[in-house]
């Protein structure tokens, strides 16, 4: 370094001498040992010794604008100057890695921006500005892929760039160009400005092979062509590359829009296990290229690429459903995967520390001669230099530590992502599937089928053979799809053994697989994820769920994300589903699909014990409310458009165009305890001037307007479409039942409840709850309900009415001998509900807080807490209610009736619970129960 010292003037020498501490000199020696390239820079530019700790990225090339040669020389000097600072600062210690990656990324971005600005001005001088047919400027963006896109650039890296412009048109200069050619010239100039190696060196090596169609494709593509390419030709490895795509120069807002438009090329809305296949294919080619003993720290075993593959594969699989995983940066992706529970804390910590070490080693290798290399040393001197750069005193220990950690990284990579061939415990599995594909229909398969104890082997063989020979399997299925069937079908033979009989299990597995054949990613989902295959098989034990999954296989990927289901987001999610609907039929279909989808997910959660019966009832009720509120919005909008609005209830014009109308939920919906088989008990109320008339093109009287609104709402809820009906509706609880008007005026309803309602109608009020419509009218209903429930009553007369109603039910609903009806048998659900309603109507005058509740289970606890029922009585009724609700929903999913035969295994527990309810009935009603027959 003597020549560098000699080149300094006296002032510079004095400045440098003042800095020559022991620490500075030791670091100087370390950097000079580690990087001959840095040493040469100091010899060539000794004044750079004075600002090694300054901000690394400070370009001056922009000041040279006007002379292309001077600009390009200045840009190269700026890059070299920045590299001298970055290398010096990087070797201060391992904690500098993040700062080094950031500085290198910022340097590349600054050089790109400066060069692009200069190139655009050059092009504009000769050819003008790029404009579309309307005369507007056409945007241009540079997208970075790879390490630059991930903000983790190497010390001597190339930069992967993709050039995109907005649309066609022509430049407006003296020599106009078609915009395709215009932007090609801009891209070529930019590459030459950065990549050309002169006596001043280069700025950055540029790689554009990640563009559409690679080397044979145009350097610059339009946004529309880019999107079309990915939709029609995009390959799995390009999805991996797209993870790191990031706009770095040009019109950044335009670049961000390109990313948004192509988001679903990389991140599919479903759980995408096809990403694993693509990654494995790329990895296999890489292993073939590198060989088993490669010294390449990037592409070899246990290297940088394997860590990136772990991150990127998990990002592609889950990122469509978990936006937090859509990280460009590897370290940020590791943190996100850890937070999402997709990597254990131990694995995430190990991968992070390994990645940091590999990047430090990579920088040390590249700073030697500013070469893009990841080859570990092959001689002692090179290992000594590497140890010096990493401040590791023993090169042999460093070599062993790297070797050991590479093996550990590779082992984790294999464990997480690579397929381990499963040992075949029974060759007959594969043999049976092969026979089904090749043998004649009359092939005697009894010997092959014998190990699985099918009840009807002949029928099983016929079904398996028909499946294998179907057009979708034998002709249309891709090679990869057949490979996945080769994985799945032998597994099915074991999985169906959990069914009784196994024939049913195999039938349902084959039915589902047939439904999945047009969607290859679902086969991958099952073939790649053994735990999920087991979960799906468990769901197929329910014939209701099995039929639903065959009808709607798209719901399979939702099942994996059911822990993310959030009912509070249903309105937002429904709005997104409805956004694409263009007419009434599409909207109604979309609403039904949304309800059916969420119902299936809730049912699956309940079937797999992820949701208890009470929670299921609450969620189903909330889902129905969301659907009814949406349907009411549509019905009101239709009425306003066709018939206009009405004056308010006082006869004056209402400031709200939607008049006072309310939907009141009774029964299980009102009590937030719906089951999978529940219909909706509804009552409609309105408040408007009796002599009012709507102001639309087809005016209606108030009563006719609201009657038509009620009819329209029921039509929306019950009309069968391609997606089925939304709900069955029961309106019999309105005043005067089926003989009364469909929609009741508020005045008539309140008068009826106060003066004419039967006891059973006040019982029904116990669970009644407003769920949609005018907030003011809903509030008035709640006040009326509280008034009625808190009215003083003769307890004995109330008990007699309830007992009489119970007797009428038993007289008209005969239960066959030897069976227990979960709802209607003595001690069943109806008895529990009647007990709660008796307690409410008799106790609300002295315990008015009870009137705030609607749910049967919540009310049992409230009656206990109020001292009205004993803890023992409440416990008996709570447990019976939970058991009956659980059994009711489980039997629905099994396509069984709610009437349980005494020979059924669950019958004993049900009868025991019913006996407890009957004891509570006698205790709570006391002598009044003696009036029962």
Automatic annotation (TrEMBL):
Name the keywords, alphabetized: ATP-binding, Ligase, Magnesium, Multifunctional enzyme, Nucleotide-binding, Nucleotidyltransferase, Transferase
**Enzyme Commission (EC) number:** 2.7.7.89, 2.7.7.42
Q: Which reaction does it catalyse?
A: [glutamine synthetase]-L-tyrosine + ATP = [glutamine synthetase]-O(4)-(5'-adenylyl)-L-tyrosine + diphosphate; [glutamine synthetase]-O(4)-(5'-adenylyl)-L-tyrosine + phosphate = [glutamine synthetase]-L-tyrosine + ADP
Q: Does the keyword Magnesium apply?
A: yes
Question: Looking at the record, which segments are called Adenylyl transferase?
Answer: 433-933
One Gene Ontology molecular-function label: [glutamate-ammonia-ligase] adenylyltransferase activity
Ranges where the Glutamate-ammonia ligase adenylyltransferase repeated domain occurs: 29-259, 541-782
Per the record, the coiled-coil ranges are none
Please state every residue range assigned to the domain named PII-uridylyltransferase/Glutamine-synthetase adenylyltransferase. 295-417, 816-888
Name a single GO biological process. regulation of glutamine family amino acid metabolic process
| Listed GO CC annotations | cytosol
This protein's record includes keyword Aminoacyl-tRNA synthetase:
no
Region ranges (Adenylyl removase): 1-424
Its needed co-factors are: Mg(2+)
State the top-level EC class: transferase
- Which PANTHER family did the record assign? BIFUNCTIONAL GLUTAMINE SYNTHETASE ADENYLYLTRANSFERASE_ADENYLYL-REMOVING ENZYME, GLUTAMINE SYNTHETASE ADENYLYLTRANSFERASE
Q: What does this protein do?
A: Involved in the regulation of glutamine synthetase GlnA, a key enzyme in the process to assimilate ammonia. When cellular nitrogen levels are high, the C-terminal adenylyl transferase (AT) inactivates GlnA by covalent transfer of an adenylyl group from ATP to specific tyrosine residue of GlnA, thus reducing its activity. Conversely, when nitrogen levels are low, the N-terminal adenylyl removase (AR) activates GlnA by removing the adenylyl group by phosphorolysis, increasing its activity.
Similarity annotation? Belongs to the GlnE family.
Please report the name of this protein according to its UniProt entry: Bifunctional glutamine synthetase adenylyltransferase/adenylyl-removing enzyme
Which species? Acidithiobacillus caldus (strain ATCC 51756 / DSM 8584 / KU)
């Amino acid at each position: 370094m003597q020549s560098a010292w000699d080149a300094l003037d006296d002032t510079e020498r004095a400045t440098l001498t003042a800095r020559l501490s022991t620490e500075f000199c030791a670091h100087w020696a370390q950097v000079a040992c580690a990087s001959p390239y840095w040493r040469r820079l100091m010899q060539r530019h000794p004044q750079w010794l004075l600002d090694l700790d300054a901000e690394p990225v400070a370009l001056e090339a922009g000041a040279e604008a006007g002379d292309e040669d001077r600009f390009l020389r200045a840009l190269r000097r700026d890059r070299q100057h920045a590299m001298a600072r970055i290398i010096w600062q990087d070797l201060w210690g391992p904690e500098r890695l993040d700062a080094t990656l950031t500085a290198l990324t910022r340097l590349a971005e600054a050089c790109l921006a400066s060069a692009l600005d200069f190139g655009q001005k050059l092009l504009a001088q000769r050819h003008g500005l790029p404009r579309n047919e309307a005369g507007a400027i056409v945007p241009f963006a540079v997208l970075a892929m790879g390490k630059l896109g991930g903000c983790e650039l190497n010390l001597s890296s190339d930069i992967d760039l993709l050039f995109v412009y907005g649309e066609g048109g022509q430049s407006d200069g003296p020599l106009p160009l078609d915009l395709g050619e215009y932007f090609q010239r801009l891209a070529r100039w930019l590459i030459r400005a950065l990549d050309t190696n002169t006596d001043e060196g280069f700025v950055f090596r540029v790689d554009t092979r990640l563009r559409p169609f690679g080397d044979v494709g145009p350097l610059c593509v339009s946004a529309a062509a880019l999107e079309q390419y990915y939709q029609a030709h995009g390959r799995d490895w390009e999805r991996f590359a797209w993870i790191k795509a990031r706009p770095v120069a040009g019109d950044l807002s335009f670049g961000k829009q390109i990313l948004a438009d192509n988001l679903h090329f990389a991140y599919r809305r479903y759980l995408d296990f096809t990403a694993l296949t693509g990654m494995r294919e790329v990895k296999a080619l890489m292993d073939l290229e590198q060989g088993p003993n490669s010294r390449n720290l990037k592409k070899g075993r246990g290297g940088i690429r394997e860590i990136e593959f772990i991150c990127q594969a998990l990002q592609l699989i889950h990122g469509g459903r978990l936006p937090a995983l859509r990280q460009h940066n590897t370290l940020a992706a590791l943190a996100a995967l850890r937070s999402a529970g997709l990597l254990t804390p131990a694995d995430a910590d190990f991968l992070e520390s390994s990645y940091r070490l590999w990047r430090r080693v990579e920088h040390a290798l590249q700073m030697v001669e500013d070469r893009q290399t990841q080859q570990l040393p092959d001689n002692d001197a090179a290992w000594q230099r590497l140890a010096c750069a990493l401040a590791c005193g023993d090169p042999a220990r460093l070599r062993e530590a790297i070797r050991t950690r590479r093996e550990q990284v590779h082992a984790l990579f294999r464990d997480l992502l690579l397929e381990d061939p499963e040992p075949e415990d029974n060759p007959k599995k594969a043999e049976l599937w092969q026979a089904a594909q090749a043998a004649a229909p009359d092939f005697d398969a009894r010997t092959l089928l014998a190990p699985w104890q099918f009840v009807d082997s002949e029928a099983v063989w016929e079904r398996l053979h028909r499946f294998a020979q179907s057009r979708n399997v034998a002709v249309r299925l891709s090679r990869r799809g057949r490979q996945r069937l080769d994985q799945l079908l032998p597994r099915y033979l074991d999985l169906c053994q959990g069914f009784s009989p196994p024939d049913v299990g195999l039938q349902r597995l084959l039915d589902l697989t047939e439904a999945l054949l047009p969607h290859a990613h679902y086969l991958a989902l099952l073939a790649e994820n053994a735990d999920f295959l087991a979960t799906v098989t468990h769901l197929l034990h329910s014939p209701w769920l099995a039929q639903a999954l065959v009808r709607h296989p798209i719901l399979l990927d939702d099942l994996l994300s059911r822990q993310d289901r959030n009912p509070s987001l249903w309105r937002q999610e429904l709005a997104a589903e409805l956004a694409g609907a263009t007419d009434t039929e599409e909207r109604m279909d979309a609403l039904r699909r949304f309800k059916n989808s969420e119902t299936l997910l809730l049912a699956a959660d309940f079937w797999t014990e992820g949701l208890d019966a009470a929670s299921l009832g609450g969620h189903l009720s909330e889902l129905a409310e969301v659907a009814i509120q949406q349907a009411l919005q549509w019905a009101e909008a239709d009425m306003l458009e066709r018939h206009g609005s009405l004056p308010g209830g006082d006869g004056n014009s209402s400031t709200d165009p939607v008049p006072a109308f309310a939907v009141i939920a009774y029964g299980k919906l009102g009590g937030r305890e719906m089951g999978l088989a529940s219909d909706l008990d509804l009552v409609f109320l309105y408040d408007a001037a009796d002599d009012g008339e709507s102001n639309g093109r087809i005016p209606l009287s108030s009563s006719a307007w609201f009657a038509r609104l009620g009819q329209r709402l029921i039509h929306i809820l019950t009309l069968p479409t391609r997606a089925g009906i939304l709900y069955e509706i029961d309106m019999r609880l309105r005043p005067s039942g089926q003989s009364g008007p469909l929609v009741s005026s508020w005045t008539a309803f309140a008068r009826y409840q106060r003066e004419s309602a039967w006891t059973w109608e006040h019982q029904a009020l116990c669970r009644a709850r407003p769920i949609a419509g005018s907030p003011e009218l809903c509030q008035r209903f709640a006040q009326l309900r509280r008034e009625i429930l808190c009215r003083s009553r003769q307890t004995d007369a109330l008990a007699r009415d309830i007992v009489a109603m119970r007797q009428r039910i038993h007289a008209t609903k005969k239960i066959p001998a030897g069976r227990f009806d979960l709802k209607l048998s003595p001690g069943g659900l109806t008895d529990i509900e009647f007990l709660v309603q008796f307690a409410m109507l008799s106790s609300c005058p002295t315990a008015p807080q009870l009137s705030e509740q609607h749910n049967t289970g919540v009310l049992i606890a409230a009656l206990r807490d109020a001292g009205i029922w004993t803890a023992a009585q409440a416990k008996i009724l709570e447990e019976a209610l939970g058991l009956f609700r659980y059994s009711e929903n489980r039997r629905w999913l099994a396509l069984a009736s709610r009437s349980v035969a005494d020979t059924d295994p669950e019958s004993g527990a049900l009868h025991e619970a019913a006996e407890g309810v009957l004891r509570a009935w006698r205790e709570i009603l006391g002598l009044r129960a003696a009036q029962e027959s």
